[in-house]
Amino acid sequence: MAPPALVAAIVTAVVAVLAPPAVAAPPPAYEYPFQNPRLPFQVRVDDLAGRLTLDEKISLLHQYQPAIPRLGIRLYKSGTEALHGLAWSNDYHDNGNVVTATATQFPQAVGLASSWDPGLVRRVGSAVGDEARQYHRQDPDVWGLNLWAPVVNLLRDPRWGRNEEGYSEDPLLTGRLAVAYGTGLQGDDPRYLKTAPTLKHYLAYNNEVRRDTTSAFVPPRVLHEYDEVPFRIPLQANAATGVMPGYNLVNGRPSTVSPDLDSIRQWTDRPMFNPSDAFAPGNLTASQRYYATQAEANAAAIKAGINSFTQDGTDPTATVNAIHAALDQGLLTVADIDDAVRQSLSLRFRLGEFDPDGGPYASVTADAAANARLAREAAAESMVLLKNTGVLPLRAPKTVAVVGPLGDTLYSDWYGGNMPYKITPRQGIAERLGASGTVRSSEGVDRIALRETSTGRYVTGGSGAAGGMLAANATAADATAQFDVFDWGAGVVTLRSVANGKTVGYNWSGFANDQAQPNGWFVQQQFKLETRADGATVLRYVGYESAFDWAPSYHNPYVVVQADGTLNLGASSASEATAFTRSTLRSGAADAVAAATGADAAVVVVGSMPFINGREDHDRTDLSLAEGQEALIRAVRQANPNTIVVVENSYPTALNWEQANVPAMLWTSHAGQETGHALADVLFGDVNPSGRLTQTWYRSAADLPSITDYDIIGSDRTYQYFTGQPLYPLGHGLSYTTFHYGRLAVDRSTVSVDVTNTGPRAGDEVVQFYTHQRASRVEQPLKQLRGFQKVHLAPGQTKRVTFSVDPSDFRFWDVTRDRWVVEDATHDVLVGTSSSDIRATGTLRVRGETIPPRDLRSVTQAQNFDSYSGITLVDFAKASGTSVGASAGGQWVRYADADLRGGPASFSGRFANPGAATTVQVRLDNPAAGPVLATLTVPSTGDPYAYTTVTGALTRATGRHDVYLVFGGPVRLATFALR
């Protein structure tokens, strides 16, 4: 007898054969074809675009795209910041209630990058994408799905205020991490997007000093080999949906109207949606004065490739009016509008907005518990062990002192959000020690009182949570008259009220102790306590708004006590300011020393306040720790031999004394809500540190050229060209175990090495692969990162790490022929644990070509020089093109190894000269002493964009020579030829 299950299966099969065929459900009816998810995206885009009126199309070019009710289209907001979690975490409405949102805060971008782990970064991106979807569902008017992240500007200068936002000074590392984060944000669906990442900020944007008016001078090699790379890599991998131009100018042209915004679309086979940066379109007519009218400016931006104007907040009126004016004046065509709108609609379709069910990601929810675990993992993996003489990991300590201004607090940054909770270093270490251990703590900051000298009254603040206006009205220094002084360097301090734990800030009408931490665009919580010649203390306000001539502090930055006793701005100099007597009620250093003395270990947590020590709109001027923080480290180190310094900031720091004198040092970025847990995990050895530095750490700012010098080749900048001795090299980071590298195996397509964990514990090693081209027509990098892998090894375990090699990896930009080239050359192959700690070497012969001598008989782009002195690069025309710009006599450009066979008889060049007539000399082999082949007069053309051809006879010369063009005064040169 057959088993019952088999009988049932046979019966089911017979019934299925005999039953009439099922009638398929009819497809759902759609009012318009663009709503049908079964149709190709392009068909849907075409259908919707064809139904829009011209006015509706133009309205879609603003950041806040209005609803179009007749087609069932809702308001759409482009732009939600998401560098390391959702930023700002705004208030939103939920069932009529106003709710303050929180979001998982992962380590800052520079911290995430320090993990050197694309897999981890991708998981973080995915978690951020989940939270973005969840909040978008709550309030789509607040949280759009076009995320403005990641930032891929290369961190070529550690003084850049926005260093925290980027990944690395290396283009390959930055590009690969951008692919990881962008892929995580986008999700895995082959057609739809979870969110739409936008790469920031195209291009060569690394200074906040006059960021909207300075021009980055970027020679062709630097442009193609360096600054373009981290944008090209993720776009070619389809890991981003567009780029945002920077505020700066590049080679004389505002990035907002760079023609590259359109031409780089060739790097991807998908539509690109390019939004402007906030208020950047307005800069074109305001600070940059590049166009006379906004109609011209907006037309140029659209033609260049901008698809969305981030201007005037939620009000599109000015933008829409300017675009209409541009159409009326013939500066734009309807076809231009259509092209821009289609890019925007394509993105919205890929996000599932026009699908009846919202697409496959419409119901995504975030797993808060899983994201918290991931935040802890990411924070720990990002920490870099800078130095260790055996103090770490901590071995069963009973008493740990946690001291320093960042020991019991966590700070957010400008692009951070509201953390759902905060685990500080003190809390994390206390939890790890448990009930059997003791944590002693001290912030290590002075506690002071200020008494008005003339009246003897103490300055007080409010005692409640809301604080109160500061006034000199107390006769005794109780808690309301006590303030903790936090030193952030260069004399800048913040004052925290002991009465309520709130920071003192300026509120445009006076000062109040009502801020949780320094914050806001102007950061109005900054002061300097200055000592006058008469010994009195005066209070100087140094909030960022003091840089603006409309601000009260611009003319009167010193504090005075008014008739009613309240403090306000009112003096232009220290001599006119109210005099105070400063009393130190508690010495921060002495308090920290007391906590550290006799402890099994002392953990000193120092670093930066992200709103003060460099941030958007404000660069750093040096690399040093705050003076008070360094003094604190010295005092604690003297008191306790087992001192561990934790530096929590967003950039390289000159830790010269600390490197020489402190037993152990650890660096972390501002790592978010799980900082304390992650720090304890690393300090106690539960996690073996595996973070690696993504930038060169210099010994001082004296090792660096001007922050506005973008020619990394000419100025020997970054690990690729720096010839000095850094404090720590790119890729540096220590471990609690040791690794041995075997013999390198090199063939034409792979580089392999065996890596063995020779230490007592499991650990991760970041195996780094560099090369150096031995001989070349041009200056080559000293080292260049070609690949990296993070591998986990148990004690005694060996793994073979293999890197693929392709000849195209070794290409560089040949300025003689304006194209990529691979030279026939031998390359040193260098594999190790940092760019300086090379453990295995080999050689690789790359078959390529030999670059022939320059042929200056054909028209040569003047920008394609080999070297220069004094000149810069400028815009040939406002729409496109680049010229060499000289500003004074004696400046020159060099074109090396030119073949002058046949003895060219004439020089012809295209010059623009808005000023008086000047000259240009053609010299051989030396710009000052070489033979002069010609001296030509360049007449005035009256306009920097009006070019004329200047020709003249050359003294005959033959052979191979370096040709110099030496300028006699201000002039522009676009092209030239020797014939």
Overview of this structure, please?
This protein is α+β, with helices and mostly antiparallel strands and 979 residues long. The chain folds into five domains: 317 residues, TIM Barrel, CATH 3.20.20.300; 194 residues, 3-Layer(aba) Sandwich (Rossmann fold), CATH 3.40.50.1700; 125 residues, Trefoil (Acidic Fibroblast Growth Factor, subunit A), CATH 2.80.10; 110 residues, Immunoglobulin-like, CATH 2.60.40; 119 residues, Sandwich (Jelly Rolls). It is built from 21 helices and 50 strands. The strands form 15 sheets. A six-stranded mixed β-sheet has the order 12-29-28-27-13-14, sandwiched between helices. Strands 40, 42, 43, 45, 48 and 50 form a six-stranded antiparallel β-sheet that branches. α2 packs across α13, α15 crosses α20 and α17 runs parallel beside α18. It is globular and about 90 Å long. The termini are far apart. The N terminus is likely disordered. This is Exo-alpha-(1->6)-L-arabinopyranosidase.
Strand content: 25-35%
The level of helicity is 10-25%
Give the neighbour order of strands across the main sheet.
12-29-28-27-13-14
CATH class of the largest domain: Alpha Beta
Backbone shape: globular
Family: Belongs to the glycosyl hydrolase 3 family.
Organism: Dactylosporangium sucinum
GO biological process, one term: xylan catabolic process
Protein name: Exo-alpha-(1->6)-L-arabinopyranosidase
